[in-house]
Structures are given as structure tokens and as C-alpha cells.
Design goal:
The chain has one domain (8-189): Rossmann fold (3-Layer(aba) Sandwich), CATH 3.40.50.300. It is α/β, with parallel strands linked by helices and 192 residues long. A 7-stranded mixed β-sheet has the order 1-3-4-2-5-6-7, with helices on both faces. It contains 5 helices and 7 strands.
């Protein structure tokens, strides 16, 4: 089933499973540290400025649903880690994630990591939490266009050891975006 992301539209924002779309379409959740590039990736995949992205961390505060070709939802989530918005958002984020990962419509979790920096304690704890959800997981390494070859090689080695179903690079170039689109569509629409 072809999904090209050309007909991607914003649908709703919410915090509770009870408020999520109830049309039975599968969902793919994008998660990652604050300012890792989740909203930027959604905009690049859709070739449109749909998700609000900012240089200031912590702007996304809700689960934002984007309907892709009337076949699946791409869900932008708040980032984890420190922001100017303090620890109450961290507690809120944890509760929202615990509630959402139990939703049967959620088929895949896409974790975005910027491996120009080493994995911190909160990265490792969140990664461990995700691995225990039982959901299919895809890792997307962001900002790879800002890495030299040595750093990129090191990042790939780290990524290979993290236990994801698939590891992709995002330099926001057409070929990389097409691979990410394909991986998201397969993960959301194929039964495991």
C-alpha cells in the first residue's frame, strides 16, 4: 500500500487516549529529546509546514495528530529532557506517554536521537522504557548532515547496539526522507 505523505493534514491535539481520533487508523508516534527535530521531520516528510518547530526547546506540549493520506496518523509528541518549562512538564509527559503506549492503535514508536552528543542518563532511561512497551521501534538519527564521517561512523555503531527494528539516518535530503516514509508506512500498515 503506497503512502507518499502528500496529503498530510493536521487533525487534532490532545493529551488523553479518550480524546484521540477513534476512526481505527493506525498511529506512529515520534518521540525524542526536546529540540531533536521531531516537528522538523514531520514537516520534511509532508513537504509542508504543518508542525510548529522552534529553536527554543519545549514548544510542543500536546500529542499532535497528522493524518497521512487518509491511511495512518503521524503523532508529534512533546520532547523529554530539560526545558525552560521545568519539571511539571516532565511529570505530565511521563503520564501522557504511559497512557498512550497502551493504546492498540499505536503500531510503532519512532525515536529520534541526535548522536552528536553522548546518550545521557535520561536518554538511556527513556530508551529502556520504550523497549519494554512491546511496540515496534524505529530509530532515526537526526542532524546527520552536521556530522563529519568519523562522527557519523561512531553514531551508526552506537545505534546498531540499541536494539531497534530499523535504524535510519535523517539529513532531510530526498533519499533519506523517502526511506523514512517507507519505514513508517510499512511499520504502521503491515501486521507484525
Amino acid at each position: 500500500m503506497k503512502v507518499d505523505f502528500r496529503k498530510t493534514t493536521f487533525q487534532t491535539s490532545c493529551t488523553r487516549v479518550a480524546d484521540h481520533p477513534k476512526d481505527g487508523l493506525p498511529a506512529v508516534l515520534l518521540v525524542g529529546r526536546t529540540n531533536v527535530g521531531k516537528s522538523t521531520l514531520i514537516n520534511a516528510l509532508a513537504s509542508s509546514k504543518l508542525a510548529f518547530s522552534s529553536k527554543k526547546a519545549g514548544k510542543t506540549k500536546l500529542l499532535n495528530y497528522f493524518l497521512v493520506d487518509s491511511k495512518l496518523y503521524l503523532v508529534d509528541s512533546p520532547g523529554y529532557g530539560s526545558t525552560a518549562y521545568a519539571t511539571m512538564n516532565t511529570i505530565f509527559f511521563a503520564g501522557m506517554m504511559e497512557d498512550y503506549v497502551k493504546d492498540p492503535s499505536l503500531k510503532t514508536i519512532v525515536l529520534l536521537l541526535d548522536l552528536r552528543r553522548d546518550l545521557g542518563k535520561d536518554d538511556q532511561e527513556f530508551l529502556s522504557y520504550l523497549q519494554n512497551t512491546g511496540k515496534r521501534m524505529i530509530l532515526v538519527l537526526t542532524k546527520t548532515d552536521q556530522m563529519n564521517q568519523s562522527a557519523l561512523h561512531k553514531a551508526k555503531k552506537v545505534a546498531e547496539g540499541l536494539g531497534f527494528d530499523e535504524v535510519l539516518l535523517s539529513d532531510l535530503k530526498p533519499a533519506s526522507l523517502e526511506k523514512i516514509r517507507g519505514a513508517i508506512a510499512r511499520a504502521a500498515l503491515e501486521t507484525r
